[in-house]
């Protein structure tokens, strides 16, 4: 398990990787939870009515996603994301995308992420 920390309005929230979520799909049912995975290259497709479909992957397990709502500016293939939503059959229905900036992602794509510079030592 990993965790995502949000601002003042929210507590620490745990989430499952795509492979963990698939392994526990029966226990999760249609309950709302967060899922993490890497957006699979060439999987993002525009659908009608403000929806997109794409696939996420974690440890060799792929999960098809249908997302309704806003997309972060940094959303694109080959980046790690955390999604909020629930399973509807074999598809994960998402209504929120959080772009996850891991250290390895930042190292591979420094042009996509602005990391604040620490203030100089006094």
Structure, briefly:
By secondary structure, the chain is mainly β. The chain contains three helices and eight strands; from the N terminus they run ββααββββββα.
Summarize the structure in words.
The longest helix is centred in the N-terminal third of the chain and has 6 residues. With 122 residues, this protein is mainly beta. It contains three helices and eight strands. It has a single domain, classed as Nucleic acid-binding proteins (OB fold (Dihydrolipoamide Acetyltransferase, E2P), Beta Barrel). Strand 7 and strand 8 form a beta hairpin. The protein is globular, with a radius of gyration of 15 Å.
Tell me the domain tally: 1
Looking at this structure, what is the CATH superfamily? Nucleic acid-binding proteins
Biggest sheet record = 5 strands, mixed, barrel
How far from one another are the termini?
38 Å
What is the overall shape? globular
The CATH C-level class name: Mainly Beta
CATH architecture label: Beta Barrel
- Determine the strand fraction and express it as a percent band: 35-45%
């Amino acid at each position: 398990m990993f965790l995502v920390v949000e601002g003042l309005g929210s507590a620490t929230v745990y989430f499952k990787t795509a492979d963990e979520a698939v392994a526990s799909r029966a226990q999760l049912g249609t309950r709302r939870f967060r899922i993490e995975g890497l957006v699979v290259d060439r999987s993002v497709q525009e659908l009608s009515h403000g929806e997109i479909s794409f696939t996420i992957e974690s440890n060799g397990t792929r999960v098809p996603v249908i997302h309704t709502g806003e997309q972060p500016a940094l959303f694109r293939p080959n980046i790690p994301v955390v999604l909020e939503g629930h399973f509807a059959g074999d598809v994960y229905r998402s209504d929120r995308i959080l772009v996850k900036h891991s250290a390895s992602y930042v190292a591979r794509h420094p042009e996509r992420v602005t990391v604040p510079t620490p203030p100089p030592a006094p």
